[in-house]
Specification:
Elements lengths: L2 E2 L24 E2 L28 E5 L2 E5 L5 E5 L6 E4 L17 E5 L2 E5 L9 E6 L4 E7 L9 E4 L5 E5 L8 E5 L6 E7 L27 E8 L2 E8 L8 E7 L7 E2 L14 E10 L5 E8 L8 E10 L5 E3 L8 E2 L16 E2 L6 E3 L20 E2 L8 E19 L16 E7 L6 E6 L8 E21 L6 E10 L9 E6 L8 E6 L6 E7 L7 E6 L3 E4 L8 E9 L2 E2 L6 E3 L1
Antiparallel strand pairs: 1-10, 2-23, 3-4, 4-5, 5-6, 7-8, 8-9, 9-10, 11-12, 12-13, 13-14, 15-16, 16-17, 17-18, 19-20, 20-21, 21-22, 24-31, 25-27, 26-31, 27-30, 27-31, 28-29, 28-30, 32-33, 33-36, 34-35, 34-37, 37-38, 37-39
Length: 585
């Protein structure tokens, strides 16, 4: 029997912003993937190839001046004053009658008046919508029990006129759906409506697969999220598959909350198919305490299971024509944290380059084929593993010359982990040494007494250091072997920046105008390239980082639109100037 708790919500529809939180002392930057204490997959058959950390489908909501982060199967949630330091609160939203593993899978999180509400994905009609006015104290009770719409990947949206809507859908057959919901009873009003589906024959980025080839499945559409901006409704969605580098968020726009919707020409708006950690799909768009827009989304690992994933945070916004964008350029390099109102069309990238891509390494031991150079190859999917998790195992990287180091990111890999589900009271301990000559060493960072779980540890040094060698020494692992998918050193090299790229051509034929072959002449002293692409010369909003090659198959275009391209070369010393924009019709 449906049981409704009568709620009294404050009359205001907007969230009251309290005192502005600031970043931690000395901490100006962050680096993707976000360094939160990710839980391990709780699903045994997802861990048959190895137990591993996993989450996805995130939502950040600003509530009473604090940021709250919910994501799939974490058995709780995080809060932060500054988008950098996240504190976990343990909480299960399942009850004994819920015979499922999925505890807040792809949750809907929304604010009504002074109350925050949460609802997890289900195909049944036996989940409550939970409510709280004191999240830090972990105080929750059902707002409605049970909610009468079984919705997978749900999103609740409160319009400025006070009307409440629900959007949902996760399928490679069915579209997204939308429906008005009563604010008083949480009962559906009217019938559900079809919002829209995918059209991969038109939009190349929507094709299924790592290579966008639709080889064995049709593409998936999921992860609805609604944002209203200047009277327009932006219904966002993830596609074509969460396990692929091209996982992205698209958007359609309407002047009504239930449509009809029309695709924004700039699509996908959140896109990161290259670099160390890839993917920018199924997330949410939110404002910080200064009014800046951000987009939070799912990043891909997909080694031990298709659903091995992490979280990424991108500066976002709406341009003067109302085009929604997310800025993923150098998206897994250090970026500045917000300190006030910002123009996110201007880069938040700190300008610190990667100093040790494919540079020489030395290690204490190696397990099987998990080779040392996998720790510096700029792929989160490959990793070096020591033979043990013992104290004293180490990884040493040679920058090749004296460089100025500003920050280090340590990305741990899950080799022979023993955990299922969220684990309390686990931690990493390490020391980071540096040396001018590889003989005399000084401690740069000492975390040998650390008691926190830091799977993607990011250290911004209080003062930059001139050095050549860095050594990461294990003190304690929470589980498994000492394994590193990326020891990434950021700063300023001592040489010349690359020359501009030469010989750049884009081959787009009539056979399939969703796709193009991009080619260019290798730049001698470059290790990577940024390809900037967009729907007009002044809207090159998407960026693809390519390492170690001088061509790229770009298969993400709308077959009916012209596209515009430019490219820049990258090395440890900086970035070349961009070439003149190339137009391809």
């Amino acid at each position: 029997m449906l049981r409704i708790l009568l709620l009294f919500f404050a009359a205001t529809l907007s969230l009251t912003v309290q005192a502005q939180p600031t970043s931690s002392p000395g901490q100006r930057t962050y680096c993707n993937p976000l360094n939160v204490d990710y839980g391990y997959t709780p699903i045994p058959n997802f861990a048959e190839a190895g137990k591993h950390r996993a989450t996805a489908d995130p939502v950040i909501t600003l509530y009473k001046g604090e940021y709250y982060l919910f994501s799939t199967n974490q058995w709780g949630y995080w809060h932060s004053p500054d988008l950098y330091n996240w504190k976990f609160i343990s909480r299960s939203f399942l009850r004994p009658e819920h015979k499922v593993y999925d505890d807040l899978c792809a949750p809907a999180v929304f604010v009504l008046g002074d109350t925050l509400l949460v609802y997890g994905s289900t195909q049944e009609k036996n989940f409550p919508i939970w409510m709280s006015t004191n999240l830090k104290a972990n105080e929750w009770k059902p707002a409605v029990d049970p909610f009468q719409i079984g919705a997978w990947d749900p999103d609740f949206f409160l319009d400025t006129d006070g009307k409440l809507y629900l959007y949902w859908g996760s399928s490679n057959v069915y579209p997204l759906y939308g429906q008005q919901i009563s604010r008083k009873t949480f009962q559906p009003i009217g019938e559900r409506k079809e919002m829209f589906g995918l059209n991969d024959k038109q939009f190349g980025w929507q094709r299924f697969g790592e290579y966008l080839d639709n080889t064995f499945l049709d593409p998936f559409m999921e992860g609805a999220w609604m944002t209203k901006y200047k009277g327009q409704y932006y219904l966002q969605y993830g596609a074509p598959g969460t396990e692929f580098s091209g996982y992205a968020d698209g958007v359609q726009v309407s002047d009504k909350p239930l449509g009809p919707f029309k695709p924004q020409p700039h699509n996908p708006f959140a896109y990161k198919p290259g670099g160390f950690a890839r993917g920018a799909g199924h997330g949410n768009t939110f404002q910080d305490t200064y009014g800046n827009w951000w987009h939070l989304s799912t990043m891909v690992v997909s080694v031990k299971n298709n659903f091995e994933r992490r979280l990424g945070l991108w500066p976002a916004g709406f341009d003067k024509e109302g085009v929604l964008y997310a800025n993923t350029t150098f998206g897994d390099y250090p970026h500045y944290l917000p300190t006030g109102p910002e123009d996110h069309l201007k880069s938040r990238f700190a300008g610190w380059m990667l100093l040790n891509y494919q540079k020489p390494v030395q290690v204490s031991s190696t397990l099987g084929g998990y080779l040392p150079n996998y720790a510096v190859d700029e792929s989160i999917r490959t990793y070096w593993s020591a033979a043990t998790g013992n104290k004293g195992e180490y990884l040493q990287t040679d920058l090749g010359d004296l460089n100025t180091v500003h920050a280090i990111q340590i990305n741990y890999a899950d080799q022979d982990a023993q955990f299922l589900g969220k684990q309390p009271n686990i931690y990493h301990q390490y020391r980071l040494w540096h040396s001018l000559d590889g003989k005399k060493w000084k401690v740069l960072v000492d975390k040998s007494a650390n008691k926190t779980d830091v799977p993607h540890e990011y250290i911004e040094l209080p003062e930059p250091v001139r050095t050549r060698y860095l050594k990461l020494e294990n003190v304690h692992m929470p589980t498994g072997k000492f394994a590193i998918s990326g020891l990434r050193v950021f700063g300023k090299g001592s040489g010349a920046t690359p020359e501009p790229v030469k010989g750049f051509v884009v081959l787009r034929t009539e056979k399939d105008k969703r796709s193009a072959w991009l080619k260019w002449t290798p730049t001698d002293n470059a290790y990577a390239y940024n390809i900037h692409v967009g729907i007009s010369p002044d809207k090159l909003y998407n960026c693809i980082m390519v390492h170690g090659q001088n061509d790229y198959y770009f298969k993400g275009m709308d077959k009916d639109l012209p596209y515009y391209f430019t490219i820049e070369a990258i090395n440890e010393n900086g970035i070349s100037s961009r070439i003149p924009v190339v137009t391809v019709k």
